[in-house]
Structure prediction request, 456 residues.
Amino acid sequence: MNESVKIWKDISSYIEAAMSTVSYEMWFGKLVPLTIENNKLIMVAPLVSVKKTVDGFKNTVVRDAIEKSGSYVTDIIVITEEEAKNYKPEKETFQPAETKTEEDDFKYILNPSYTFDNFVVGDCNNIASSAAKAVAENPGVLYNPLFIYGGVGLGKTHILHAIGNYIHSVDKTKKILYVTSEQFVNEFIDSLSPSRQASKISDNKLNKSFREKYRNADVLMIDDVQFLSSKMSSQEALFHTFNDLYQNKKQIVLSSDRHPKELTFIEERLQSRFQCGLTVDITNPSVETRVAILKKKAELKKFSVSNDVLFFIAENISSNVRELEGALSKVFFFCSLEKKEVCDIDTAREALKDYINVSTHVISIDNIVDATCTYYNIKRADIVGKKKMKNIALARQIAIYLINDILGLPLTSIASYFGKDHTTVMYARDKITSLCKSDKLIQAQVNDIKAMIQKK
Prediction:
């Protein structure tokens, strides 16, 4: 993989997370990396319209993605396929890799825009925000570890970076290490010699550089620990790292999309350590909080947006903060095309008509259960009751799967709705997840029910 492809893969992952799948595939998914010149990534667009659209996002989504990726690339230049025919790229020129030093392990790479000041607090996240501030003010003293869980795009990563930014502002000598679980796993694998990668790794066999990097941290923050599921050797490495840091009163902060008890295929001893401090959740924001979030985002990006536009977006998009920001960027882009100084409600309706109609109407647990009952022609009382007939049990399991998949609710909440324990709900979710991969009929039925729900 050449350097331009590698860099684009990293940056584009942040762009994709900031907007709807349809929008990403329509515009950014069509770009092809060509080369890097003077720290600028040169991309080729198939059509002039794609080039113009991407250029319209350069000061918002693209800029944010470059910042979040931590790349040395400073800008993205888009040319058309016609222009590319006459383009004579030089040999890729980019910032040369420097010799790694011990200080590089703790190079300050947190996103400076993710601070407590920029984090909008509401009923959905006030406990998590308060706990995070307490940890930032007294790292290693209160709530260690701090475990934050909640659905995709609700602000967990923002809080982790805010903790690190606050600690760094108070004491720049603190060694702050923020990684995703994927980074942790990849670094762990790279630290092993080929002869030991397949074996169980004991604490004293960990590669010295990997061990020292993680054991020397004053603050260790790992994002999305749910992706450690089934990676037993990496869990072993984290177990020993956790113990060492905890015993030395170093702060540990973890995030996940679900409660530690619901982390399938995470060792019980590691689940136990995840819960030995403080566990807090973040839920979907209310309409009022969504409006406040949009207003804050608009101020930071210097967008001029009327209140009725903010309420229009907030009332129609309730899934997560990331989609709210993507919708706001799309509205601003449409306004910029029409050269409007203030985004108005008519432009907002036009910009988001397909997006809202297809994917973001309000969906409740009852909607999902009712759609499942209609599809299988069974009574609601049966699906939420205790009957174990094969057709009812399957419908119940699919409803549970869809509630978790569409709404991202914790399994404990779903269990309460159905009058089950969370292990039963976990089994149902995992079973249907597996069947959707192996059984085309079940997959088709699940997709049919999803379509019913989204059309209502």
